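Entry type: protein chain
Record version: 2
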Amino acid sequence: MIEQSFIQELLDRIDIVDVVARHLQLKKAGANFTACCPFHNEKTPSFTVNSSKQFYHCFGCGRHGNAISFLMEHSGASFVEAVESLATHAGMQIPDQVSIYPKIPDPGRVPSDKVKIDKEVEATSPLVGLYERMEQAAKFYRGQLKQSDQAIAYLKERGISGRTALRFGIGYAPPGWQNLSGIFTDYPADDSSHPLVQAGLVVAHDGKKNYDRFRHRIMFPILDRKKKIVGFGGRALDGGEPKYLNSPETSLFVKGRELYNLASASPAIRKSARVIVVEGYMDVVMLVQSGVENVVATLGTATTAMHIQNLLRHTDEVVFCFDGDAAGTKAAWRALETSLPQLKDGKDIKFLFLPDKEDPDSYIRKYGRVAFEGVLEKAQPLSVFFCNELSGRVNLGTSEGRARLVQRAGPLLAQINAPVFGFMLTKRISELTGVGQNQLAAFLKTGKKNRSSTLRPEASRPLSVTPYRRLIQILLHAPDYANKLDTNLLAINDEQNEEKVLLVALVDFLKTSACSMEEELNSVTILLHFDQTPHRVLLEKIVRDAHVKDENWNIDAEFTGGMERLREMQRRSRMAELHSRPLVSLTPEEKNELRQLMLS
């Protein structure tokens, strides 16, 4: 946590005009400065920066805040990242705060053909070592591309120019099982905990030698918002399967959070006030090469709530572009369902369906940028796609069909938190079904009540929980308790306990997460992080059961009690271990330890 006193001192020391001027061209207007608003598309400046009161305000869209919130809104930075950036410019040191994204040494300065990782740095700051290894792997793949006639021929066949390949850092992983051993002197033989394995570059194989994850593939580096490589996407040559192989989930790379090309596309997104979301790397690459630069792609996973939140922080209009087949429609509907709870009034989500058998890559190569931008303007608003899709699944000519439409639309409408948009969409469903708005509103109200009660049962409901579950509940409600938890108590040998494994993963996430501020870390953020992991089902169940928001619930006492129960479990586990062995086999130290455990 960053002390509030430091934040206030930081805001007192900096000038918001200087901060905003690094991103916008400000013009003096009396006592204030003005510019065209970066958060919505306008021709007449309505964005004002007030130097005396140290805030900005847009009279067009209503955005308002201080220097920290400006960086968060404008660049998509987290609270901590915004504070770190301002502190750097102000020459201030954040007390007891370690930068989340440490600087990575310049790969170009490595004198040897083989990479030697600084073991001390890697031991004290594992993320630094992982970032460095990803950079070195990317450099290796780029070098291999220049030497592969087959890979170059493939890119030319797909219409990718050399300049575009360089812009995206495209490379090539050659055939062979351990090519990376040629650049990493510590390539692991069978170590599943090695950094190369943790980074997803090497696959650990029980009982056999480890091997490179990517082989004979065109390589697309995946960058986070700080433009650091966190993963790779590999496209198979010669029809290998799977066609596309992504890096696995790692401490650097979470598929449900990252979007391909977002960091590079951000300026174009702000300028156009729109972002286009496609499904593949090649779609992004070809659109950008053709001049459509405000484009990103999901990374081998369905659109997540975190994707939507991230995109809506960058712009007011999101256009999902899908193939015009059944699979494209299905993917679009999943994106719609995910988008509904994230919608806000003033934000637009649209859906573009290309002609059958066309994807963005093939369409823009065949018809060009102008044609693509033409069909882009015909994208369906979410409300139109919502009504058309649901209406097409029923027979509106019968009472049963109309009732079925209400039944299917109701739970979806109940998820909408944008009041004006929700009212307009409810009105449209009312018109389609002939059900009065009052009756439909009453149905939705009941649906929301049921949904709310499912997520938040009565606090008085008695629960019998393990200490693992109780500590998980506490961390969901108050993530900062992760720093108070004695992780030595998690060393009990019960790795088959699903709750224990989840608690360990949760503590690790909370301690290393880039979102370390209380304003950002909450049960929703945590659920999104674990959405694509095996822990999702159990975590959702615990969230529904949690009753820590009861005002009579003493969180400090519960935390202390949970820790004490873990200590008791650890004591009993160690006693059982020592008792299971013949007394004559115990060392004097172990006998004394057993005696102390029995007396404690």
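Comment: The first helix runs from residue 4 to 13.
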